[in-house]
Amino acid sequence: MMRTRDLSYWLFLAPVLLALSMVVIIPLVFGIYYSFTNWNGIEVGGFIGFENYLNVFKDKEFLDSLWFTVKFSVVSIIFINFFGLALALIVTSKIKTSKFLRTIFFMPNLIGGLILGFIWQFIFIKVFAGVGNLFGIESLDGWLSTTQTGFWGLVILMSWQMAGYIMVIYIAYLEGVPTELIEAAEIDGASPFQRLRYIVFPLVAPAFTVSMFLTLSNTFKLYDQNLSLTAGGPFNSTQMVAMEIFKTAFGESEMAYAQAKGVIFFIIVAAISLTQVYINKKREVEM
After folding, report:
1. What is the pTM of this model?
2. Residue 64 lies in domain
3. What is the number of H-type helices and E-type strands within the chain?
4. Is residue 47 in a domain?
5. Closest CA to 261 of 275, 245, 284
6. Mind listing the pLDDT tens digit for each residue in 16-38?
7. Sequence-ordered strand ranges (E) for 178-232
8. For the chain, what is the radius of gyration of the CA atoms?
């Protein structure tokens, strides 16, 4: 009986392992190998060691895009999780339209990144300009034409798209909070903020770990929204790492160099993600 169970387990797991190997593991291994060569997409060429990696740390455009990506990710993670939790608290409260609101809040996540970028590009450029002309607000004219407004445009777009998705995660944990604890705290005279701080937050701590991991990975690897909203402009000042790597590979045909950038980017994201998960898990235990 035990052998049959073990065999069936591996039979069911085999398609997933095969797909994971073909799509992730094998390309990653080949990519790391190519990063040590002068591969141009057609011919592998010779082995050049760490030359590509050394050049990456001298590449100002890559370092600027990495710094912009880090700033964007930090701000976006705060905004997305704040609004996601706020929306979850709204729709889990005792209001009649909670199911309707859940649908409305989640819908932006169903829109493709490129389409979403073009929609917000129209809003930031045409709608903002119209409102600025109507009320005489000059600061609304020329949105996305500067690094600062382009940065906040990307943050707004990403927050609007992902807040509803993160809301669903928080809802799952909020609905698992025992009502008896909330009622007991209310009877004891705890304020709404105290109930939220000392009862709700500790019980939904695992949701913070999951949500921060998802928002971190999604904001760091952002490409399609960046392409359709600002295209990296002006003068590549809002260019994120994924776009910079893509341009190096397919715009400049430096595949091996782009692959080296990709490996470094992978290591950075993996290190930050694992550190974040470790810290949050540790805090869960302490709570």
Report:
1. 0.87
2. 52-286
3. 15, 0
4. no
5. 245
6. 999 999 999 999 999 999 999 98
7. none
8. 23
